[in-house]
Amino acid sequence: MVRSSRGEVSPGMWRREAGTVVRRVPPPAEQMTAPFAIIAGLQIPRVPTEWAPHSHALHELVWVRGGTLTSRVEDRIFTVSEGYGLWMPAGVVHGGRATAGACFHEAFFAPDRAPFAFEEPRAIAMTPLLESLLTYLSRTDLDAAARARAESVVFDVVEPSEHRFALQLPGDSRIDAIAEALLDDPADGRSLEEWAQWLGISDRTVTRAFRHATGLSFAQWRQVLRVHRALALLADGLDVTAVSETLGYAQPSTFIASFRRVMGTTPGAFFDAGGSGGGVRNPVSPVQDS
Q: What are phi and psi of 237, to 5 degrees?
């Protein structure tokens, strides 16, 4: 089933881009009886594409070049850009979204043949070596010995990222409306007191609910949300000043400081490194700090 979106809000996710195509994912037959330890492939969505919630019989590693990938897993939103991948354990229900024109890569790992197991979705550092090996494994002309050698090296170099790419949604009916409103418009600058008044509850209730549900204060949570949204905007080619304005910051320096607090580095340094620390320049997003 495929249907188009006109930019409406998708509950628990960022606002869809106009023209987004939503696809349902049937379980491919090869995922059920994988002949190899790793199956890799590539697709390039010509329009913004969203995959309806689904799961796989195999572990999945997805990453993009020239765009961003967003995935929803229960009450968490993962946003990964170039230089990072997302590991999705077998059986975990998830939905996903990729920007138009992004090179969307995926690799499936047979659970009974992988020497490691991440039990939760994890951001993975997509180093040049790892990407090259998985691209190599997407070939259909490899003999069994060559494939086995490449697979063994992949198992050696898969490493979780030190960066946090998960935005924890509250999952609390008292404050979910705030989360939905800010996902729709991250620049909404209403104060804690104004949000509480809007919901008809006390600001203390809002404060406690956010802390209990996410481990963060409301202000910290909104900061993380804006930085996650910034990853997609920067990868789409917006400069720091435009992103700062779009997300409601008074000036670019404030946005840069916020980004550094969440990601541990500035937007320019993050994208200069291709996100992986491997010296891979993001070819579509020349981000410079103001």
A: 105, 0
